[in-house]
Amino acid sequence: MKQARALAMLLFDTYSEMGDEEQAQALATLRTVDPAVHDALVQLLVTDVLDHTLDARPWLAGAVPAPADDDEIDDPPCCDGK
Fold it and tell me: Which of 14, 27, 40, 42 is most solvent-facing, going by the fewest CB within 10 Å?
């Protein structure tokens, strides 16, 4: 399995730069030639396109989006809307 993963890592850049149709055809061919490398490569490609927590800019980490409308903002109890 280590050898399949190593080969998948070598193929990753080439496959990730392919268009969708070309990539699908190449993966189909790879699946018939070496299923273990195919599975490892697909795992890498899928992981690459998923959003990851560490992909966020540090200054946005934990940021809460502002409400879309000012009416949604409640005044703090200490202010009573004044």
Answer: 14
26 burial via Cβ count (<10 Å: 0-12, 13-18, 19+): middle
Contacts of 31 (CB under 8 A, 6+ apart): 38
Distance CA 18, CA 12 (A): 10
Which residues fall within 8 angstroms of residue 12, CB to CB, at 6 or more apart?
41, 44, 45, 48
In this predicted model, what pLDDT tens digit does every residue of 23-43 receive, in sequence order?
A: 999 999 999 999 999 999 999
